[in-house]
Amino acid sequence: MRLGELRGLLSRHARPDAGTAIEDLLISKVEKSAPPxxxxxxxxxxxxxxxxxxxxxxxxxxxxxxxxxxxxSVDLPVTGHFVDASPERPALGVGLILRPAAVAExxxxxxxxxxxxxDGGAPSGIAVSDAPDELLDAVIRLLRxxxxxxxxxxxxPLIKREILWRLVTGDQGVIVRQLGLADSSLTHIARAVRxxxxxxxxxxxxxxxxxxSGMSLSAFxxxxxxxxxxxPIQFQKQxxxxxxxxxxxxxxxxxxxxxxxxxxxxxxQFSREYRRQFGVPPSQDARQRESTHHTAPAxxx
Length: 301
Prior knowledge:
This is AraC family transcriptional regulator. Residues 271-301 are annotated as: Disordered. By secondary structure, the chain is of the alpha+beta class. The chain has helices spanning 2-13, 100-109, 133-144, 149-168, 173-179, 185-198, 206-213, 217-228, 232-248, 255-261, 267-278, 282-291, and strands at 25-30, 37-40, 44-50, 52-57, 60-65, 68-72, 77-83, 91-97, 126-130. Helix 6 (185-198) crosses helix 7 (206-213).
């Protein structure tokens, strides 16, 4: 019953840009399955009402379908697509951007003993669980407010806070709670992830990233792998190749220029790694995507 109402609300309010009248609330409606495409996950709750989505992070693959949710606690380079979406049965999903400050505020408001302790190890940056009825109910009530502009200003923040509470006390609560803890292992790794994303063209020493994260080299490697399913160098390569793919969409003939722009000194190495990542050489991939019209990719992980 809840999923039926959720599907109806998402179908009615879906927009091409995935946005809604409620801040940080996203709706995804996809009517045609497209090949897996790279994107950044963001820090988000993504709940599926209809269809199935498959996400790859490094060597990990996550499938989640109707009545399940995914939590991403770090902005990670992922590859994903909806499976078997069609105009007759479109994939439908709702997302809520997770703000560390909001999580931190909620943790401070919790009474002693309300939340189990978080251990020192960094959890995976992405996890999937079945959505409990309480979470589905809160998401539905938030979506109903799209039709009630008079109530949105007061009630939307309260319901978003309730959704966060369901997350921090749910199956993936450890992941979400660490998002709001300034001194958690996940937060320290997120600092290194953010540095690589902002400076992906530059070479770096892993020792320097470990120091930035306040960890020993061995602890940094261990926690970075746990969160991202990649080494720091592999992570940088993923960011470079994703950025290159975006740039080639606008200029498929300048492969050498694009390779240098994203930080490669050797165009041949860039072409090899691009082909290994996307299955075709960079110029051919760009031309194929120019000539093929797919439904716009979903905004949710």
